């Protein structure tokens, strides 16, 4: 059952949306906990020369400068279909970033022989370093993949993809659902907006979010089948739901992704899905979580390649 959070968030007044004062108070409490340069940029520097690493923008936050990178796979051909893989939209979701990097390092070369690859492994580097869902302006990038987006993390990667002038056939966005969603991020969201917080049950296992307006259940099943070889698939709760949404099939729910401003909603890809790994499960290690993200990407691309002429 869904539960209601009754304790107050330490910032703000219950029932009153945050002003700039509370937002500044929240920002002042954030601390750098890991290095985007060491964990991400250094791995991009080590890629083979035939990977086209492009800087598509920069985030300037206080004294911090974060160059943003997207990668075109080897052997790009304008007449081939393209796959877009995005990670780190929510910086705290570590396996999304490391899974995208792992795919780049270990697997992408093989798939680039038959399709074009675009990979943005860490869309929100400040949030990666501070282990956050929001950017410094208390905005969620994964609710702002919209026209004229006020969130630079979202706007800059959308502009980069558009500049490629290629049709995206498949888009896989790599995410996690964590215990901190209920412990920190959902309470913070409710406090920011001055509303009552409603927590959801955190699923133990991997699941997918598809686009309710472009349902491709066989495609998503192929992704789930691939991931199930690495880690377990989440079961529905006693209401037949995952994170409050009805289950379409085991391990799969649907959202209206464009309406919600989600990352997979900004492309017109026929095949699209958001992955959700549960890193806090006693049944999964961090390495398994990274491998599950890679398996999700390879499962998706294998499904597509079987259907290409």
From TrEMBL:
<protein>
    <submittedName>
        <fullName>Peptidase</fullName>
    </submittedName>
</protein>
<feature type="domain" description="Peptidase M14">
    <location>
        <begin position="32"/>
        <end position="309"/>
    </location>
</feature>
<comment type="similarity">
    <text>Belongs to the peptidase M14 family.</text>
</comment>
<dbReference type="InterPro" id="IPR000834">
    <property type="entry name" value="Peptidase_M14"/>
</dbReference>
């Amino acid at each position: 059952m869904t539960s209601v959070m009754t304790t107050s968030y330490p910032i703000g007044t219950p029932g009153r949306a945050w002003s700039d004062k509370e937002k500044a108070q929240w920002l002042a409490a954030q601390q750098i906990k890991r290095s985007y340069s060491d964990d991400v940029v250094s791995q991009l520097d080590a890629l083979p020369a035939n990977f086209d690493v492009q800087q598509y923008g920069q985030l300037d936050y206080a004294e911090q400068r974060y160059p943003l990178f997207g990668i075109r796979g080897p052997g790009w051909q304008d007449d081939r279909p393209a796959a877009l893989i995005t990670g780190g939209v929510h910086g705290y979701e570590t396996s999304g970033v490391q899974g995208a990097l792992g795919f780049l390092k270990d697997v992408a070369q093989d798939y680039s022989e038959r399709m074009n690859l675009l990979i943005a492994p860490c869309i929100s580097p400040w949030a990666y370093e501070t282990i956050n869902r929001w950017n410094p302006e208390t905005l969620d990038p994964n609710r702002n993949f919209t026209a004229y987006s006020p969130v630079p993390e979202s706007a800059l990667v959308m502009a980069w993809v558009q500049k490629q002038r290629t049709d995206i056939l498949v888009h896989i966005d790599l995410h996690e659902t964590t215990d901190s969603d209920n412990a920190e991020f959902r309470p913070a969201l409710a406090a920011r907006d001055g509303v009552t917080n409603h927590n959801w049950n955190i699923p133990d296992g991997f699941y997918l979010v598809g686009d309710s307006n472009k349902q491709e259940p066989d495609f998503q099943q192929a992704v789930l089948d691939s991931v199930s070889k690495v880690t377990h698939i989440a079961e529905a709760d006693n209401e037949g739901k995952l994170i409050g949404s009805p289950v379409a099939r085991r391990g799969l729910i649907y959202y209206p992704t464009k309406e919600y401003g989600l990352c997979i909603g900004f492309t017109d890809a026929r095949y699209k899905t958001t992955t959700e790994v549960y890193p806090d499960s006693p049944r999964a290690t961090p390495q398994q979580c990274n491998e599950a993200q890679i398996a999700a990407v390879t499962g998706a691309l294998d499904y597509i390649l079987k259907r290409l002429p």
